[in-house]
Amino acid sequence: MAQTQKPIRWWPLFVILGFAILGIIVIWIIEAGHRQDKVFWITMVVILTTLLGVLWLLGFSRLRWRIKLIAVAIVALCVFLSTNLFQFKGFSGDLIPIFEWRWHQETTSFRQNTDETSIPQISTTDYPQYLGQHRNGVVTDIQLNLDWDTHPPKLVWRQSIGAGWSGFAVVGNSAITQEQEDDWEKVVCYELGTGEIKWSHRDQARYDSPPAGLGPRATPTILGNRVYTVGSTGILNCLDFETGEQLWTTHIFEENGAEPPPWGVSISPLVFGELVIVSAGGAVAYHRETGEIVWTGYRTRSGYSSPFVATLLGTEQIIIFNKGLITAHEPLTGKLLWKQPWSERYAECVAQPVPLPDDKLLVSTGYGVGAKLYQISRNPTGEFNVSVVWETVYLKAKFTNIIYHENYLYGLDDGIFVCVNPVDGKRQWKRGRYGHGQTLLISDVLLVLTESGEIVLVEPDPQGHIEHARFAALNGLTWNTPALAGHYLLVRNDREAACYQLPVINTNKDTNAK
Predict the structure, then answer these.
(1) In the sheet that 110-111 helps form, which strands lie side by side, from edge to edge?
(2) What is the pLDDT of residues 452-475, one digit of tens each?
(3) Where are the beta strands (DSSP E) in 233-350?
(4) Closest CA relative to residue 404, chosen from 131, 221, 124
(5) How confident is the model at residue 258 (pLDDT cuts 50, 70, 90)?
(6) SS (H, E, C) 159-207
(7) Separation in Å, CA 237 to CA 165, 185, 270
(8) Domains defined along the chain, listed by start
(9) Torsion of the alpha carbons at 31, 42, 24 and 34, rounded to the nearest 10
(10) Positive or negative torsion for Cα 146, 150, 156, 162
């Protein structure tokens, strides 16, 4: 008598899939943790589900071995095709792996016109450093035309660029950034109006580590006839603005006996008077003409934010958001004015603190930590005191900066745009999934460069999220900060850069091409 084939045992597979779906739903809707944790645990669920599915197939399904072998062969073929058709390109800000076709073509260079007459002559609307003239991401000299259907942005040039997460600094017709070429870090000066290279300087240095990526990440600072840059391993350069000639150089971490942050150095140098200030195991000030150390501040571990100047309680001070600590220093001597501990959990600080009226300071971090508003005051002996006004988990700035405009805060909360009331820290609204991008305030409108490379105009309205216009400016993962010189918008990522002429209603100063 022929042996009867037992029926296929489907119920274990249904149980596995059921628990997997339930687990993903619970992970995604639960309020605890942050998006990166959720992505990690969902990935673990998918991997475990796959392994259990294979175990069911081979050991518990009761399928014929011929069918089992065919299924395994199909899986192996899919893996083979995937590895040969796609290439791994890193991680998004939410730690989602990014893959693209292996035959993905690099950016084709585009230049609108390379005639000398087309080069814009920028007068006073330079963008000489990280986040603009005041390091706050605010540009006040122009007013954009928001009707991009009728008056769309005009592409001036677009071309491939070396890897890196540096932004552009712009003075006159020179746009300067940092990028990677093989084992060399380069500081490259482009013509703003054409994209042609004017000069480049290079140092033998290389940082490359997933998920942080390859290349330098700090934005240059321009003052007078000098350009100051910090590379991804800690090389501080002073270069001639016109030629790129190296005037002096040092390695800030080696010189100060400090450890660089593990995900690459992203500290854009601050020029204050005769000083160039960075963080290398705490604040360090160099003489901007000679490169000699002028003062060394409170010693601590360096983070990823850049130093900036703020006036609190009538006192000008240099503030640095280091790893697990916020410090304020007297600018000329480096004397510690006050310090405030920050969360050691996920203390990889990138977002810039934001000074607010009435001697307050907003500080925020991603990875589920959130934001705190500090009140700076003095005690009876005249020393600075720091107290917490409020704290919230509804404003988690990871890569981006937060904008303060007309008594409200705007920024990306773990990749979703939010408006927060600074009086009590309550969220007004949350909408607009732009990823871990960057934000500028241009007079009375917010320009968001999304993580996917789109430009979006958002109304700074506490009553609700209003999106005016958008267009695709770049392809691929985009973490770099944009720069706006006059109405020329410079954007880049780790593979391409572009210059767009934005439509303008009027200008307070002469920013048009002459």
Answers:
(1) 110-111, 154-160, 496-501, 488-492, 483-485
(2) 999 999 999 999 999 999 999 999
(3) 235-240, 246-251, 270-272, 275-279, 282-287, 293-299, 308-312, 315-322, 325-329, 336-341
(4) 131
(5) very high
(6) EECCECCCCCEEECCEEEEEEEECCEEEEEEEECCCCCEEEEEEEECCC
(7) 18, 11, 13
(8) 11-101 (no CATH), 110-507 (2.130.10.10)
(9) 10
(10) positive
Cα separation of the two ends of the chain:
97
Which letter does DSSP use for residue 401 in this model? P
Please give the helix or strand (H or E) that residue 42 lies within, else none: helix 35-55
CA contacts within 13 A on the Cβ side of 371:
31
Which residue, chain included where needed, has tokens 């958008």?
470
Residue 236, pLDDT > 90, answer yes
- Give the mean model confidence (pLDDT) for residues 348-358: 87
Distances (CA, A) of 310 to 314, 352, 440: 10, 12, 19
Determine the 3-state secondary structure of 316 from DSSP.
strand
Pairing of strands 384-392, 325-329: unpaired
Rounded CA separation 241/174 (Å): 9
pLDDT of res. 286: 98
- d(CA 433, CA 363) in angstroms, rounded, equals 22
Which has more confidence, 19 or 146?
146
pLDDT (0 to 100) of residue 81 = 76
Residue where the block lists tokens 């008598």: 1
Of the candidates 176, 327, 172, 296, the residue with the CA atom closest to the CA atom of residue 237: 176
Side-chain-side CA neighbours of residue 66 (13 Å): 0
Torsion angle of the four alpha carbons 166, 168, 171, 172, in this order, in degrees rounded to the nearest 10: 150
Q: What is the pLDDT of residues 6-25, one digit of tens each?
A: 788 888 888 888 888 888 88
Run of H or E including 85: helix 65-85
What contacts 268, CB < 8 A, 6 or more positions away?
129, 130, 218, 219, 220, 221, 230, 306
Closest CA to 372 of 398, 391, 356: 391
Q: Can you give the pTM of this predicted structure?
A: 0.86
Backbone angles phi, psi at 14, to 5 degrees: -65, -35
Helix (H, G, I), strand (E, B) or coil at 26: helix
Residue 268's CB is within 10 A of a number of other CB atoms, namely 27
